[in-house]
Amino acid sequence: MSKLDSKIPAGPLADKWKNHKAHMNLVAPNNRDKIDIIVVGTGLAGGSAAATLAEQGYNVKAFCYQDSPRRAHSIAAQGGINAAKNYQNDGDSVYRLFYDTIKGGDYRAREANVHRLAEVSANIIDQCVAQGVPFGREYGGQLDNRSFGGTQVKRTFYAKGQTGQQLLLGAYSAMSRQIGKGRIKMYNRHEMMDLVMVDGKARGIIARNLVTGEIERHSAHAVVIASGGYGNVYFLSTNAMGSNVSAAWKIHKKGAYFANPCFVQIHPTCIPVHGTQQSKLTLMSESLRNSGRIWVPKKLEDAQAIREGKLRPESIKEEDRDYYLERRYPAFGNLVPRDVASRAAKERCDAGFGIENNDTKEGVFLDFSTEIMKKGREAATEKNIHNPSEKQIYDLGKKWVEEKYGNLFQMYEKITADDPYVTPMKIYPAVHYTMGGVWVDYNLMSTIPGCFVIGEANFSDHGANRLGASALMQGLADGYFVLPYTIADYLSADIRTGQIPTNSSEFEAAEKEIKDKVNFFLTNKGTHSVDYFHKKLGNVMWNKVGMGRTPEGLAEAIKEIEEIRNDFWKNVKVPGEADGMNTELEKAFRVADFLELGQLMAKDALERKESCGGHFRWDHATPEGEAERDDENYKYVAAWEYKGDDINAEVLHKEELVYENIEVKTRSYK
């Protein structure tokens, strides 16, 4: 059994990372070309890690299932990236970013990791500016900042509503430089199928060429998993259709513990579901909550009239609108953390005030009229326009909003055919980010020696809830500034190992297992498509392991997913051939993993008898409907050990969370 040792360095919190770096083993520059490293995933975490490791002189093999690293799902992160620069001079600091992240995660994250994240955040901005990332700037040329949920300072750097895309292009340009030098060997349209272990260490992967269908062996001295999160277990989510858990789940089945799988973030500002045939949801950036006010009608009859199309939302008077976040959480208002905002929207819709005309009556308004008029008046004063007309004020305010969020408004209008400058946006919570993932120690290594996990694929620095604009921060921190140090400490013992051969019995056995499973899928005489099972799984997950959970519902979910799993292996039909492109075969492998993960998520949620962050149990709620934590019994990371096909047999290991530098108390945003 692997020992659960977090390897957190001793000493004062602010000195842990500095002292740890100073005492690590190193690989000398002249020895780095003797070392091979595999990086699976080329989003912000994987792309930045591959570029940095290759720049240092290691031989890097990078894998992505997309046709280019530029298509990694990191491009979908729109709103911004946090850093403790205090450019706004409003009281920000490394400690405040650390505190906000711990509190926002509902006190379920490691102190040492989160403080390190806050420390290196400022370096990320400098690195990205040097790469040419076009961050928004103020009139004087200084980088601009906006606010995000869960904070009372402006620390979020942004590039309009394309921050993730611009940051990824920066990492990709750094990768391209190394690809040109031959230090990165890029494997596009390749998917990791399994991890290969030799003498108890991660020594390579089995990959499938998604164009030719060929099963390939790739060896290395260490393997880095940077394959993102598992939100698509719910079928409908904000994730790209191809996002999956397979790389992380494969290493879990080889001995890497999977931590806090029930910690899933529901994002409050997504376009509501519009029909049963929908296969993906669209996220509207949280940055919009800076300028938009969230409301529903105060009167049930007004909500009903809006749903039926008899009443336009802009015609409802101010006094007849319920700005429920401002009412319930006056200190933070519309900028409460995502889990709080999501539950509040659900509560209003469950009470009958939802405004979307579908069977669920789900949806609330995100309204920019107040901000447009406010900024318009400011602009008119600035331009010395005396007694401006309402139209002049509106036009000036609209121009300001266009400069900040124009592409997001454009995207919304193309999807919904509503002009959000005139008619408030309709939004509703949806599955977004996953805080759970592969357990890693302070060095970002899993319980498998030589297998490192970074970015959203690991169980993260976010606790039970991620604050907005922290995913990009963590991905780039891990890839640029943490992993390159910690992986060198591990690899220093491998400079005399030599190249890892791929003709060993371990590689042969792993390849045969994959080929046998490919053959099974293509010869199984089933009657239902892969999507049929994925949708059934998603329905169970959303209804019983979603925003609000009950012990009865979770127990039912475990049994129902077991039935779907059994049916899947008997009745799935995968058309096509093995030798060539076969997207249904790709999905079959991924959904098989989702079915197992879904069970573990429900099991983890049932075991955690408290409410914290994105994990909300109705049997552990305050009279006001807020989350009720149990710090005495559940202040730990739940790390699950795989014990075979029966997911109910997984063994729970606990990493107790110790808070020496922060007071653990009930979260309040009121």
Q: With helices defined by DSSP (H or I, 4 residues minimum), what is the helix count?
A: 17
Number of strands: 19
- Overall shape: globular
* Structural class by sheet pairing and helices: alpha+beta
Rg of Cα set: 25 Å
Quote the CATH topology of the domain at 267-431.
Flavocytochrome C3, Chain A, domain 1
Relative helix content: 25-40%
> What is the CATH top level name of the domain at 267-431?
Alpha Beta
Span between termini? 45 Å
Unreliable sequence segments: none
What characterizes the major β-sheet?
A: 5 strands, parallel
Mean pLDDT across all amino acids: 96
Note the beta-strand portion.
Answer: 5-15%
Report on this structure.
This protein is an alpha+beta fold and 670 residues long. Helices cover 38% and strands 14% of the residues. Among the domains are: 165 residues, Flavocytochrome C3, Chain A, domain 1, CATH 3.90.700.10; 127 residues, Methane Monooxygenase Hydroxylase, Chain G, domain 1 (Up-down Bundle), CATH 1.20.58.100. α14 packs parallel to α16. 54% of the residues are buried.
Topology:
Layout: H1 16-22, E1 36-40, H2 44-56, E2 59-63, E3 81-82, H3 94-104, H4 111-131, E4 156-157, H5 163-181, E5 184-187, E6 190-198, E7 201-209, E8 215-219, E9 222-225, H6 246-252, E10 258-259, E11 264-270, E12 293-297, H7 300-307, E13 321-322, H8 324-328, H9 338-353, E14 364-367, H10 369-382, H11 390-416, E15 425-434, E16 437-438, E17 451-453, H12 471-491, H13 505-523, H14 530-544, H15 551-571, H16 583-607, H17 631-634, E18 636-641, E19 651-656
Parallel strand pairs: 1-2, 1-9, 2-5, 9-17
Antiparallel strand pairs: 3-4, 6-7, 7-8, 10-16, 10-18, 11-15, 12-13, 12-14, 14-15, 18-19
Helix pairs in contact: 2-5, 2-12, 3-4, 4-12, 10-11, 14-15, 14-16, 15-16
